[in-house]
């Protein structure tokens, strides 16, 4: 009987050790599976991030880009196309300025729903143009839009679609804000005309255009440039710091 008891005890211990080993192997297998699952999750996340990065790179490469440039003024009365040099600013006293501005899509896909505003000002030589930090107030049909900021003298513009490589042009006037918030023309005065002629004053045209791409992302271009009456460029640190484009 004693011998049988010893054999039963030995078998029980063997079963206990086997069960313990099985539990240990199960726990190890569970940890290995969890580790493998975590590794798979990391690989999936890395693949998704890589795909998103490739998609963004493709989208940025294919996006539209709007370039804004001052082309010149309207021709003098009675002058033909060959009589006016490109970039020459023909501005006449007591008349709208009618400066021609060109918007060109230099990107690879179409720009949609373009809108923005342009401001024109005369600046004394050696002085900086006034360009506030907040956005221009968009102006359409002679009425300033509602804004928490005071209306800035600016003209609004809109375009529904500009294909890659295409451009559109418009004529824009210098304007001022009346006491009741309306935007009206501000013709060139005689002293200002003298200042432009002797180059003691220069012209600055600046503003912002926003637009959408075909992928549903919004973009913007801030532009600013100084020029004399003959179309010569006038460097301006203020313009240089303002001019920029988004990186979307």
Description:
There is one protein chain. With 248 residues, the protein is of the alpha+beta class. It folds into two domains: 1-62; 65-245, Immunoglobulin-like. 30% of the residues lie in helices and 32% in strands. The chain has three helices and 13 strands; from the N terminus they run H-E-E-E-E-E-E-E-E-E-H-E-E-E-H-E. It has helices at 2-62, 190-197, 237-242, and strands at 66-73, 99-105, 111-124, 139-140, 143-144, 155-162, 167-172, 175-177, 183-185, 201-212, 218-227, 233-234, 244-245. The strands form four sheets. Strands 3, 6, 10, 11, 12 and 13 form a six-stranded antiparallel sheet that branches. The longest helix is centred in the N-terminal third of the chain and has 61 residues, at 2-62. The protein is elongated.
Structure keywords:
single chain; 248 residues; alpha+beta; Immunoglobulin-like; 2 domains; 6-stranded antiparallel beta sheet; 3 helices; 13 strands; 30% helix; elongated
């Amino acid at each position: 009987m004693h011998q049988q008891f010893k054999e039963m005890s030995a078998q029980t211990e063997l079963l206990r050790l086997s069960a313990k080993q099985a539990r240990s192997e199960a726990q190890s297998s569970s940890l290995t599976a969890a580790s493998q699952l975590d590794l798979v999750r990391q690989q999936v996340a890395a693949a998704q991030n890589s795909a998103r990065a490739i998609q963004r790179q493709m989208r940025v490469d294919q996006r539209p880009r709007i370039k804004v440039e001052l082309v010149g003024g309207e021709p003098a009365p009675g002058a033909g196309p060959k009589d006016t040099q490109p970039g020459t600013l023909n501005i006449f006293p007591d008349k709208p300025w009618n400066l021609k501005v060109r918007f060109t899509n230099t990107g690879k896909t179409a720009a949609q729903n373009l809108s923005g505003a342009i401001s024109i000002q005369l600046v004394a030589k050696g002085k900086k143009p006034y360009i506030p930090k907040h956005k221009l107030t968009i102006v359409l049909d002679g009425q300033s839009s509602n804004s928490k900021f005071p209306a800035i003298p600016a003209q609004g513009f809109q375009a529904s679609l500009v294909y890659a490589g295409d451009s559109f042009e418009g004529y824009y006037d210098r304007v001022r804000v009346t006491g009741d918030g309306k935007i009206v023309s501000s013709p060139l005065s005689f002293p200002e005309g003298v200042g432009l002629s002797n180059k003691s004053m220069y012209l600055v045209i600046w503003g912002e255009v926003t637009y959408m791409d075909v992928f549903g992302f919004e973009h913007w271009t801030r532009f600013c440039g100084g020029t004399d009456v003959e179309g010569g460029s006038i460097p301006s640190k203020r313009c240089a710091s303002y001019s920029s484009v988004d990186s979307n």
